[in-house]
Structure formats: C-alpha cells, structure tokens
Design goal:
Low-confidence stretches: none
Radius of gyration: 30 Å
Distance between the termini: 100 Å
Structural class: mainly alpha
Number of domains: 1
Strand content: under 5%
C-alpha cells in the first residue's frame, strides 16, 4: 500500500508541476509577444528615419547637380 501512495503522491505532484509550468509558459509567451511588438515599432521608426535620410541625400544631390550645371 505504501508504494501505491508514494506513486499517487508523485503523480499528483507532477500534475501540479505541469500545471504550474503551463501557467509560466503562458506568461512567457505574453512577454515575448510584447517584445515582438516593441521591436516591430522600433524597426518601423528606423526604416522611416533611413527613408528620410535617403530622400534628404537625393534632394541635396539634385540641388548640387542642378546648381553646378
């Protein structure tokens, strides 16, 4: 009888640990999702800034070439 009780206790303990890990995993997935959103926003602003710099460079180049010619 003692072996059965020990195994039953182990199964109950493992079931609780799995439940706890599933909760932790949901929490981590939420945190990862928030980080992904922040990275996407940062990437958008970096591309916008790079586009602005490129347009400024092309505009300056055109003014330089038109003034020279």
């Amino acid at each position: 009888m003692a072996v059965c009780e020990t195994k039953c206790e182990a199964v109950i303990r493992l079931d609780q640990e799995v439940t706890d890990l599933k909760g932790w995993q949901k929490s981590q997935n939420g945190a990862i999702h928030r980080v992904e959103e922040k990275v996407d926003k940062l990437q958008f602003w970096m591309m916008t800034a790079a586009g602005g710099i490129a347009i400024s460079f092309v505009t300056q180049l055109l003014f330089f070439l038109l003034k020279k010619g």
